[in-house]
Specification:
The chain has helices at 12-15, 35-46, 89-94, 108-116, 129-133; strands spanning 3-7, 23-32, 59-61, 99-102, 120-123, 136-143, 152-166. The chain is globular, with a radius of gyration of 15 Å. The protein is an alpha/beta fold and 177 residues long. It has a 5-stranded mixed beta barrel with strand order 2-3-4-5-7.
């Protein structure tokens, strides 16, 4: 286990060197999307439409922020349970998504898609949304504004802390002895 400082875009060159248990600090652009946004993206793909973000080498953070307090770019920004996106994740990974940030376990189908696409699954600390928001330097809604907190946001992050839970080989921190 190591501390790693990584920048987006999250390429295979980066993911191949990440291992389950590594602490990472992410700097760059990441995107948020939760249940409703994932459902809408799936419907868009079914209808042969274009997604609002390019999945290639990007990271999706499963998060819906609370309203920003005065002087802040975002409110509390803690992770949501990743398994709720499991039915959508394999398709997005196959489209080039390289990283996902959430909390909790993932299905076998997602783990296989992670391995197949040399991607990774990161966990952010649940209950630490106020602390995590301090790493977010800018936030703007880029799609599905009608979904409120579940809209897709582009976040500019600096040293956003996370842990590699499932690496590109399928090693799973939650299944270690």
């Amino acid at each position: 286990m190591m501390d790693r400082y990584i920048n987006t875009p999250l390429t295979e060159e980066i993911t191949k060197d990440l291992h389950a248990g590594d602490f990472v600090y992410i700097t760059g652009i990441i995107y948020t999307a939760r249940d409703a946004a994932h459902k809408r993206m799936a419907e868009t793909l079914e209808n042969k439409g274009k997604l609002p973000i390019n999945m290639k080498d990007n990271i999706i953070y499963y998060m819906g922020p609370s309203p920003a307090r005065e002087g802040r770019v975002i409110g509390s920004a803690g992770p949501t349970t990743a398994s709720r996106m499991d039915k959508y994740a394999p398709k997005l990974l196959d489209l080039g998504l390289k990283g996902m940030i959430g909390k909790g376990k993932r299905s076998n189908e997602v783990i296989e898609a992670i391995k197949r696409n040399n991607s990774v699954y990161f966990a952010a600390i649940g209950g630490a949304g106020a602390l995590l928001s301090k790493s977010i330097k800018d936030s703007k809604v880029i799609a599905y504004d009608d979904l409120g907190t579940e809209a897709i946001r582009e976040l500019k992050v600096e040293n956003f802390p996370a842990v590699v839970v499932i690496d590109n080989q399928g090693n799973n921190l939650y299944e270690r002895d």
